[in-house]
Design goal:
Layout: H1 2-25, E1 27-33, E2 64-68, H2 76-81, H3 84-91, E3 97-101, E4 128-131, E5 138-141, H4 144-157, E6 161-165, H5 185-195, E7 199-201, H6 203-214, H7 216-219, E8 224-225, E9 228-232, H8 234-249, E10 271-277, H9 292-295, E11 305-309, H10 317-322, H11 325-332, E12 338-342, E13 368-371, E14 377-380, H12 383-396, E15 400-404, H13 424-434, E16 438-440, H14 442-453, H15 455-459, H16 471-486, H17 500-504
Parallel strand pairs: 1-2, 1-3, 3-6, 6-7, 10-11, 10-12, 12-15, 15-16
Antiparallel strand pairs: 4-5, 8-9, 13-14
Length: 513
């Protein structure tokens, strides 16, 4: 027995030693560069990504670790002045790789009070002495090539293997073509790589050639956004990473030995924006009763967002819960999603009788037991109680709830649009405040627009009755809702809503379907 234990112990020790040795032998691929390598924190803020966030998915993670040390806004000069290269240099070990790409920010001023990040053009040893207006220190500024060469040489000193890239192309078209940088930063990057005898990948030309196969119309909105011609979307970043991998495959770099044969690339999932409410929000399949949720996708960046309209006509907070509609919607909600809650039009109905959809006034914990016509006993709660339940359960799913007041009716007492600001508008706000949740008084904002348009114009928005809008009215409400979401300070949903300029650039909305 003792011998068996010793054998088992020895085997375990050998296994652990081998595991430790393998872990120590794992190669690290470091990426250094600007925001086209890593945008922001590398979390896709604004839908923008760098290729350094995806390059690792093409490589064997059992043998390779990727560390993306790029920083947005840096040039080859400022990256090193900030000590960022020193931090990478200290970690380098023999056999590691350093993927290098700068150029987008090197064209700026050598000295100013904003960035002071520019480099001298070319690869010579030319210098310029400055008193840096930001750091207040004397500085010798070098050429772009000098800074690239410094990184290459120092990486080689540590036994690491540098790979130099030309900067990715900008999404600026002329006569169906994208401009190349093969007479500037792309050329200078290649010249340094050739002189230092390291691998060069013409990322600029490779990616531009791919994009030109699609054409400007298909590229913009898919691989780049209209709002930004420099930073790619997730798909654009993957295309850049693919271009690098293709360049590696035909190079002499040993890094190509770690490229996966059939990589499975995982793109970030689209964020869901759930719409929970009644017929004023729902898709009612009726041209005379179009909920604003039908029109609102136009105002979102649908390359990153799914609008999931779960609103249902005729429902109150109570019936949406009682009928299981909330539970069904809740099953689909994922972390980081958004849930917009809007009720009130049907909550004023009878509590005990007819449609059994009325809720108790207010936001308290009062209840009323009701014997329904279907022989079921139901405990009815307040309007605010149901809203607070939806809010809490949304948060439990890791999603973000946003409460909106109900839409106004086309009623004009005393020449002003009707506002239920002492009932459902007020209670919605109070419920949101009680749960520390964002609130938008959509009723007020829409009413202000209606009053500016005038009663006769607004009448055209309501072809059926005083509650339900046609497409034009639904679009007016959707546009207002989007504007308010865009202005919702501190909320991440703002980033998913198109700006006014982006909306203005869209084709005219079809209002007469």
């Amino acid at each position: 027995m003792r011998i068996n234990k010793l054998i088992l112990f020895a085997f375990l020790a050998l296994f652990l030693a081998q595991f430790k040795a393998e872990a120590q032998q794992k190669i690290t691929v470091y990426t250094v560069g600007d925001s086209t390598v890593k945008n922001g924190k590398g979390d896709g803020t604004g839908g923008l990504w760098g290729w350094g966030d995806y390059i690792g998915q093409f490589l064997d993670s059992n043998k390779i670790t990727v560390e993306n040390h790029a920083l947005g806004g840096t040039s080859s000069r400022s990256y090193q002045n900030l000590g960022l290269w020193d931090a990478v240099y200290k970690k380098l070990k023999k056999g590691d790789y350093v993927l290098i790409q700068w150029g987008h920010n090197d064209d700026g001023p050598l000295n100013d009070t904003i960035r002071a990040r520019g480099t001298i053009k070319g690869i010579s040893d030319k210098t310029e002495e400055i008193d840096n207006l930001i750091t207040k220190k004397h500085e010798t500024v070098h050429t772009y090539g000098w800074y690239i060469r410094k990184v290459v040489k120092e990486a080689k000193e540590k036994g690491a293997i540098p790979i130099v890239m030309s900067p990715i192309p900008r999404n600026t078209w002329k006569d169906g073509k994208l401009p190349r940088n093969n007479t500037s930063y792309g050329l200078w990057a290649k010249q340094i790589a050739d002189q230092e005898q390291v691998t060069f990948i013409d990322l600029n030309d490779r990616m531009a050639s791919k994009l030109e196969q699609f054409g400007e119309a298909k590229v913009t909105g898919t691989y780049f956004y209209k709002k930004d011609h420099t930073h790619p979307s997730a798909k654009g970043a993957v295309m850049a990473a693919t271009s690098i991998i293709e360049g590696l495959k035909v190079s002499k770099s040993p890094l190509k030995n770690y490229i996966l044969e059939n990589p499975v690339i995982k793109l970030p999932r689209k964020i869901n924006v759930f719409l929970i409410g009644d017929s004023t929000m729902a898709d009612n399949k009726n041209e005379n009763a179009v909920g604003w949720g039908v029109m609102v996708p136009r105002y979102f960046d649908t390359t990153r967002v799914n609008i999931v309209n779960k609103a249902r006509g005729g429902r109150s907070t109570r019936t949406f819960d009682f009928e299981g509609l909330w539970d069904k919607a809740k099953k689909e909600i994922q972390p980081n999603d958004f849930v917009i809650l809007q009720f009130g039009h049907n909550d004023a109905g009878k509590i005990d009788g007819e449609k059994f959809r009325g809720s108790i006034n207010g936001i308290g914990d009062e209840t009323q037991v009701v014997n329904r016509a279907d022989s079921l006993t139901e405990t009815v709660h307040t309007y605010g109680w149901y809203l607070k339940k939806f809010i809490r359960e949304t948060k439990e799913k890791g999603a973000t709830p946003i409460v909106m007041s109900l839409t106004p009716r086309n009623e004009w007492p005393n020449g002003k649009v009707e506002q239920r600001d002492q009932t459902y508008v007020k209670w919605a706000q109070e419920a949101a405040a009680a749960e520390k949740t964002d609130y938008i008084n959509l009723s007020q904002k829409v009413a202000q627009k209606y009053e500016a348009l005038g009663q006769e114009k607004v009448k055209e928005f309501y072809p059926k009755d005083h509650t339900h809008t046609g497409r034009a009215g639904a679009n007016a409400v959707a546009e207002t809702a989007a504007e308010e979401l865009r202005n919702l300070k501190g909320s991440k949903i703002r980033d998913l809503v198109l700006t006014k300029k982006e909306v203005d650039d869209l084709p005219p909305v079809q209002l007469n379907k």
